[in-house]
Amino acid sequence: MADFFQLEIVTPEKLVVKDRAEEMQIPGKNGYLGILPGHAPLITELAVGQISYRNGSETHYLCVAWGFAEVLPDKVTILAETAERGEDVDCERAQKAKERAEQRLASNDPQVDVPRAQNALARANTRLDAAAKEGKTTAGQ
Q1: CATH H superfamily, domain 90-133
Q2: The pLDDT of residue 141
Q3: Which of 37, 49, 52, 111 is the most exposed place for a label (fewest CB within 10 A)?
């Protein structure tokens, strides 16, 4: 059995990652899944969350929102609505989105779409966390 699997992460706009991985974690709809080479085939819906994968001594982090993952013994394909490498996150923009979502949730305004605001907050937090894990904490770093 191989010590790695092929990994592709694709959005409607572009191919975000084409690499190999020795292990990875993905945010499934019902919780995170750990994937190793030779994993049993499965298809899962993705939630908002963070993808991490290891290739050699390097671990990479991405934020993802919605989509599907197909896991095969030698390949993982992720078709995501949005996916962004942690190193590409605009931290200033993500921080502003987080603050807007928090303000909406704290306002107690009956006009606020609470599930949408909660979703925006989760996405912003995920983006900031992925950026921090890649060593990026401010815009322009």
Answers
A1: ATP synthase delta/epsilon subunit, C-terminal domain (1.20.5.440)
A2: 44
A3: 111
